[in-house]
Structure formats: C-alpha cells, structure tokens
Amino acid sequence: MEANTRNRTIALAALFQCVEGVTQIASRGSVDSELFDACINSVLTEDASSPEALYGGVEKLRTGLRVLMHQLGTGSMTPDGRPKDIEATRYAVNLLYLEKKLANDPNMFQALLKNIENAQQQLDFFGMTHPNMIARLAEIYSNTVSKIGPRIMIKGDQNHLSNPENAARIRALLLAGVRAALLWRQAGGSRWKLIFSRGVMQKEAQGLLRA
Q1: Domain total for the chain?
Q2: Between these two residues, 211 and 198, which has the higher pLDDT value?
C-alpha cells in the first residue's frame, strides 16, 4: 500500500511536471532544461527499475512535486496566497483521459509503443533532447495520441505557440504526460484516488521533497 502511494505520487508529480513544461513554453517560449530533460527521459528510457528511475531519480521531479502540492491544496488559493493554475489542472485531467482512451484502443496503443521503440533506436545517433529527437516524439504524439482525441488546446502567447520548435517541444511533453498517466494507472491511480487521497499524496510529496 505504501509503495503504491509513493508510486502514485511520483506518477502524478511527473504528470504535473510535464504540464508545467508545456505552460512554460506556451507563456514564455522557453522551458527549464532539467525539467524538460527528465520528462523526455521517461519516454526514451527502457527497463527502468522503478518509476522514479524513468526520470533520473526523485530529485529530478522536484518541480513536479511542488506543483502537485500547489494544485492539490484545498480551496482556490494556496497557503502562500497564490491562485491555483486552472489550465494546468485541465491539461493534467485531459492527459489522464487520453491515456485511458489509449488503453482501450489496443491497435493504437501498440502503434504508439512500436513508434517509441523506433525512436529509442535513434539514440545511437541523437541525444535525448536533440531537436531531431524532439521532432520525432512530437510526430509520434500527432500520429497516435492526438488522433484518438479530444485534442488538448494549449493557451499561451501565439508568438511562442506558432514557433515550430516550441510546438514540437509541447507535443513531446504531452507524450511524456501520457507516459506519466500510464504510470499513474499502473500504480492503482483513479479518479477516486485523485479526489479522496489528496492529503495522503500531499504528505508523500512533502516527504519526497525532503529526501
């Protein structure tokens, strides 16, 4: 039970970290490199020994853990007086929904896995966050997850959103978000867990941040 609580918290933190990356790119045209690298790492890493190993360790998910605590707090404001990010919550819920639809579409799910395997083989030629690799992950997202719908509409500065490189990075992060949503479901995550286990996950997140 405790292991599942930990794994669910890590998965949800990873999901929120991907969402935070999307928000950063959409609003300012750039993204924290460590945050981005950890998210992309989770898509291209094979045979990780634990959920956190997909991201390079819990310390690489500190942003996601902080966002999770911010978003799961009760009320519309956080203890330090900041409003919750409604768009971030919408992106996260949409990604959880898309992953569930993907899980119910075996053909599309297998196509996604095959495409990711092919992308992993390109690591012999490109680094994980090389523009060519990011473009490939973005293409995978467009050809699989995006097709099952509904499409996630990203809000932000149109000057940033219309930039092809930014658009590719956003799609790659959304693909990583689907990966995190899969981890959430594999750890027993559900809508009910999200509603009734908020306090437990906040406490777990606090412990992981202190570790």
Answers
A1: 1
A2: 198
Nearest residue to 143 via CA among 112, 99, 179: 112
Verify cis geometry, omega within 30 degrees of 0, for the bond prior to 106. Answer: no
Q: How far apart are CA 103 and CA 109, in angstroms?
A: 6
Q: Compute the half-sphere exposure of residue 4: CA atoms within 13 Å on the CB side of its CA.
A: 9
The pLDDT value given to residue 82: 60
Question: Domain limits at 43?
Answer: 2-210
Q: Which two tokens stand for residue 85?
A: 């990010």
User: Could you give the C-alpha distances from 45 to 6, 98, 165, in angstroms and in order?
Assistant: 20, 21, 22
Predicted TM-score (pTM) of this structure:
0.94
CATH of the domain at 31: 1.10.3890.10
Note the helical H segments in the chain: 2-28, 33-44, 62-72, 86-103, 106-121, 131-143, 145-148, 158-161, 164-186, 191-196, 198-210
